[in-house]
Design goal:
CATH topology of the largest domain: Rossmann fold
Distance between the termini: 33 Å
Structural class: alpha/beta
CATH superfamily of the largest domain: Diphthamide synthesis DPH1/DPH2 domain 3
Order of helices and strands: EHEHEHEEEHEHEHEHEEHEHEHEHEH
Number of strands: 15
CATH class of the largest domain: Alpha Beta
Bound molecules: iron/sulfur cluster
């Protein structure tokens, strides 16, 4: 079902003469880990493979600290492309885990939902990005003009999007009427819709179906605006810095703190790895609104789980009247100009 590129992993083990290897998977791929180890061990001797069991949601979260403590020679990070730039002090091999699921049923289903548009922007998660040529051909045969998003931001491939980086969509936003996102679930498509303001259709290869996410977008926007409105009147803010390797943006958090103080409000700084509601229970009586300077999708997707409003940096700027009130303007900030502090 997925291409784990075993030859490439073995080649890297051989090149590094690695003896201890840490395998890191997002939750959806963990069930393949033991079969993969069986296959690797049948082809190489003298190597210990460890499966990293903690949650992993993105390429921002490579287990670098764990790798150093475990003294491994190589981390193989599955399901994502390289996110953290520069020398990280550990050998990391990224295996995107391309899916072999067919896309034709999902795209044919999407064609019915795309009928009222002429120009379609085509995007995908990394698992299906190698199928975008086929997606384009099917759409063109159905009479659409097709534009594939560019390779930019943290995308390694044309048309690739991440939950927090839809640069590929933004590169073609003025050319298209609608976006077609090839992905399982609505997570990535929602990021595209919120960041571009354009209609988005999901072609889901796992279900072999397509869906219009406009109701989800409307519901999400109404929740986001409710939180922004609460932040307008808030007096005490908590600014949360992530400590996962690709989420460390202390400089941004300090600038956010200065902004809050300059508006006559109070601010506390927090740092954490898992930004969960439970982690912030001890503070909710003292803090009116939390600003997340970590994974921005915690705000977009999990806000309903928190007992106090949580907002992104872009949303804070709207609340404090330092940026225009257009919601799409908040999201390029996810990992755009606010990103200088990333490691
Ligand atoms: S910051 Fe969030 S959305 Fe971006 S890669 Fe990490 S987990 Fe995914």
């Amino acid at each position: 079902m997925y291409d784990f590129e075993i030859d490439r992993i073995l080649g890297e083990i051989k090149r590094l003469d690695a003896r201890r290897v840490l395998l890191q998977f997002p939750d959806g791929l963990k069930s393949f880990s033991l079969s993969l180890i069986d296959e690797l061990q049948s082809r190489v001797d003298g190597v210990d493979f460890l499966v990293h069991v903690d949650p992993c949601y993105g390429g921002c979260d490579v287990a670098l600290d764990e790798a150093k403590r475990l003294n491994v020679d190589l981390v193989v990070h599955f399901g994502h492309t390289q996110f953290i730039r520069g020398d990280v002090g550990v050998n990391v091999l990224y295996i995107p885990a391309f899916s072999d699921l067919p896309v034709d049923r999902a795209v044919h289903s999407a064609i019915n939902l795309l009928r009222r548009y002429s120009v379609v922007g085509v995007l995908s998660t990394v698992q299906h990005v190698h199928k975008l040529g086929e997606v384009c051909r099917l759409l063109e045969e159905a009479g659409f003009r097709v534009v594939v998003g560019g390779r930019c931001g943290r995308s390694l491939f044309d048309g690739q999007i991440l939950g927090c980086d839809v640069c590929s969509a933004l590169s073609i936003v003025d050319e298209v009427d609608v976006f077609l996102v090839v992905a399982g679930g609505d997570f990535h498509a929602l990021g595209v819709a919120l960041s571009t303001g354009k209609p988005v259709i999901v072609a889901d290869p796992y279900r072999g179906e397509a869906r219009d996410i406009s109701r989800l977008v409307k519901r999400t926007l109404s929740l986001r605006w409710a939180s922004i409105m609460k932040a307008r009147d808030a007096q005490v803010f908590g600014v949360i810095v992530g400590v996962k390797p690709g989420q460390v943006r202390v400089d941004v958090a300090l600038r956010v703190k200065d902004l809050i103080l300059s508006c006559g409000r109070k601010c506390y700084l927090f740092a954490g790895r898992e930004i969960s509601p439970e982690a912030f229970y001890p503070f909710i009586d003292r803090v009116d609104v939390f600003v997340v300077v970590a994974c921005p999708r915690i705000v977009i997707d999990d806000a309903h789980r928190f007992r106090k409003p949580i907002i992104t940096v872009g949303e804070l700027k709207i609340a404090l009247n330092v940026s225009r009130g257009d919601y799409t303007s908040t999201l390029p900030l996810l990992h755009g100009e606010e990103d200088e502090g990333s490691s």
